[in-house]
Amino acid sequence: MILVSSCLAGMKVRYNGTDRLDERIHKLVEEKKAVMVCPELLGGFQTPRPPAEIIGGTGDDVLDGQAKVVDQFGCDVTDMYVSGAEETLKIARENGATTVILKENSPSCGSGFIYNGTFSGEKITGAGVTTALLRRHGIKVVSEDEFLA
User: Fold this and answer.
1) Do 34 and 97 touch, CB atoms closer than 8 A?
2) CB within 10 Å: which end of the chain, N or C, has fewer?
3) Three-state DSSP class for 42?
4) Domain ranges of the chain
5) Largest CA distance in the chain
6) Do residues 128 and 106 make contact, with C-beta atoms less than 8 angstroms apart?
7) Residue-wise pLDDT tens for the chain (149 aa)?
8) β-strand 2-5 against 99-102: which pairing, if any?
């Protein structure tokens, strides 16, 4: 069993109320080969919600208390991101997932890139909070492009 970002399976759960449907991932869910998760909803966010970025580092830095996640209005939402990551880890363990496909660039789900914390659209190399936590527990996390390449 694998876990996949709900937005990649067609659920309109992204910060702006949209999805990032990938038909191949949707098919995995339909065939019951994948379970959908949205770390941000699991952390208590609503849809839509203000965009957020990691300030001062990456998801690993957030987990280490050296960076935080802040929304575009300056509200510190770090605790909700960490809570969503912990819930996602719990679901991964319950389902025996060894691979998780998450949406690239997200402060939760980015596996190779995240936005740089300036809300300018620029990206840096790094992982989101959920990806960092899952990897710390030995779970492989990839983007949709990496998994389906």
Assistant:
1) no
2) C
3) helix
4) 2-148
5) 41
6) yes
7) 999 999 999 999 999 999 999 999 999 999 999 999 999 999 999 999 999 999 999 999 999 999 999 999 999 999 999 999 999 999 999 999 999 999 999 999 999 999 999 999 999 999 999 999 999 999 999 998 898 77
8) parallel
Beta strands in 33-148 (DSSP E): 34-37, 52-55, 68-71, 99-102, 113-115, 123-125, 140-143
Residue in the block written with tokens 């802040």: 70
Distance CA 21, CA 44 (A): 22
Say if residues 116 and 68 touch (Cβ distance below 8 Å).
no
Q: Is the pTM of this model over 0.85?
A: yes
Q: Return d(Cα 34, Cα 58) in angstroms, integer.
A: 27
